Amino acid sequence: MENLLRPLIVIGGSVVLTLLIGWTTDLLLRKADQRHHETPLWGLLRRGRIPYQLVLCAAFLRAAYDEAQVLEQHRTAVGRTLTLVLIGATAWLVIRIVAAVVETTYSRYARAHRDPARVRRVRTQVTLIMRVVAAIVGVVAVASMLLTFPAMRAAGTSLLASAGLLGIVAGIAAQSTLSNLFAGLQIAFGDMVRLGDVVVVEGEWGTVDEITLTFLTVRTWDERRITMPVSYFTSKPFENWSRGGAQMTGTVFLHVDHAAPLPAMREFLRDVLRGCPAWDGRHFDLTVTDSTPSTMEVRALVTAKDPDDLWTVRVTVREQLIHWLTETHPYALPRVNTTDAVLPPTHPNTHRDGTIPRTNRSRVHEPPRATGRG
Length: 374
Prior knowledge:
- With 374 residues, the protein is of the alpha+beta class.
- The protein is built from eleven helices and eight strands.
- Helix content is 55%, strand content 15%.
């Protein structure tokens, strides 16, 4: 009877004590979350209740296993298994606690600062810091697990003796990975690109959707995802439309006839922008930027608070101007002149209205023929 009751009391007591402490801790965290609505810390800490209970249960069972006298012939294996579970659960719990603290700090910063660029910068740094912390804790946990095996401790001496050679080989083999790793840290703390920034890379326009220690994902306007190594952004030039503020200036080019009514076009452009909610009201202009023998190039200058609104303003202005010219000033559209050529009135082969007689047109530009042999 004692051989049956002892394991039940030890194992059952450990499980019951774990559930009791876990339930009490979760109750206290829930009350603290209800009492302090201004901070999400207590609610985020509740996400770690599962690894917290695993740590408690593994610790209790590891401490009381010798008293249970169960599977004594496998005592070493069972004890090592409990130790591995304890190490893994502890690493899991540490990551959850650090994530809760960092997320709470970021939430307070986001509420205190209204600048979207600064908030995105901190968000990028927080994300990469969490990935670094998780990687470090994971490596330490795996190393601690390996050190529980005597054979691994014995092999540590020989590994340290050849650490120099292994370091050189690993550095050569993982050169690209290490470069991306350091590039990710440089992006996080160098403020080169942030989550939510609008960038143009390889001719593609999109928004930075994800940043890790090794790669970066850009979400294009047509919902595609472009995954690029972070080393690209530290070694090649790229456009970041969100640096220094999201306000932007855009252009709309039109080719019109030389007789186009420019003052009326400026007035209509102003009316179009006043009726466009995406225009931020900062500036607009319409000027002639180039001319050809048959047309002239007109540039409409518009502004908006961000790239998305700028795209809306540009397409609206282009559509409305073309429609207005077609309806009210069709002569201002590009055309090919097919009328008779007009020469100066002093030309001997012209009529009074300035046109060339059909019988003489072919000889207007002919050079004079030679009359002598000389």
